[in-house]
Amino acid sequence: MKKIIETKDIKKTYRMGAEEVQALKSVSIEVNKGEYVAFMGPSGSGKSTLMNIIGCLDTPTSGIYILNGKDVSDMSENELAEIRNKEIGFVFQTFNLLPRASCLENVALPLIYAGYGKAEREEKAFQALKNVGLGDRVNHKPNELSGGQRQRVAIARALVNDPSIILADEPTGNLDSKTSYDIMELFHELHQKGNTIIMVTHEDDIAHYAHRIVRLRDGLVESDTVNPNPTRGKTVAAIG
Ligand code: ADP
Ligand code: MG
């Protein structure tokens, strides 16, 4: 199994004036290519902080982070931005779509940074939307879609660059339970295709789709266990 993520004794301290918060006290974890992992734990336990470091949106105060064989601990902001664009697809609780842009434009956005021409961007974005079952919504604006459809647009955007890792922080946090399960079906399918997925969730039944569950508490890994019987998805085609 190829190691894709390795953190060694990662610490993160936030300073706000005289106050210090130790969001991560010491986190050492490894994730192999193709794994499907859920991060759980109470609010404030450090889940988002760890996801942001893994996604190169933030850097640890100390410790080593190796992503895809590269030590990213001491990289410049430019180098980190490049890695983010190439290696990571982000999915957020609040979707983070541009409200005035069409679905196609939203999904094509990461391809602008990656340097593709317009025709190629539109073709790739269209394919990505088709892959999440939204091939007939390319010209819609986000506010013309349901919450689940918006999250699927965000997932298409996360995948359009063919990243090695998908990071999803509470991806179903703003969705009703039926729609949440639809999104989990999609994640299941992505995992089947070989994508590496890490998601943060509060909900046991959502976490149960993952094949491994890491629990954080007070900035430490409290437990890290294999899920012997992950929830199996239907196929996206069956969702309609
Ligand atoms: P979780 O996602 O598990 O709820 P977070 O990683 O968001 O936890 O937060 C961990 C701790 O770090 C919390 O005490 C939180 O208040 C603090 N924290 C998170 N982000 C910041 C920040 N940008 N500045 C200061 N403190 C922060
Ligand atoms: Mg969080």
Report on this structure.
This protein has one domain: 3-Layer(aba) Sandwich (Rossmann fold). Helix content is 32%, strand content 29%. It contains seven helices and ten strands. It has helices spanning 47-54, 77-87, 103-114, 118-131, 147-159, 177-192, 204-207, and strands spanning 3-16, 19-32, 36-40, 62-67, 70-71, 88-92, 165-169, 196-200, 212-217, 220-226. Strand 9 and strand 10 form a beta hairpin. The longest helix has 16 residues, at 177-192. The radius of gyration is 18 Å and the shape is globular. Magnesium ion (MG) is lined by residues 47-48. Magnesium ion binds next to helix 1. Belongs to the ABC transporter superfamily. Macrolide exporter (TC 3.A.1.122) family. This is Putative ABC transport system ATP-binding protein.
According to CATH, what is the topology? Rossmann fold
Order of strands, main sheet, comes to 6-7-8-3-9-10
Order of helices and strands: EEEHEEHEHHHEHEHEE
CATH architecture group name: 3-Layer(aba) Sandwich
Mean pLDDT metric: 93
How much beta, percentage-wise?
Answer: 25-35%
Largest sheet: 6 strands, mixed
Q: Cα distance, first to last residue?
A: 35 Å
Oligomer state of the chains in this structure: single chain
The level-1 CATH class: Alpha Beta
Number of helices: 7
- Tally of DSSP β-strands: 10
Alpha-beta content class = alpha/beta
Instruction: Give me the Rg, rounded.
Output: 18 Å
Give a list of the ligands. Answer: adenosine-5'-diphosphate, magnesium ion
CATH H-level superfamily title: P-loop containing nucleotide triphosphate hydrolases
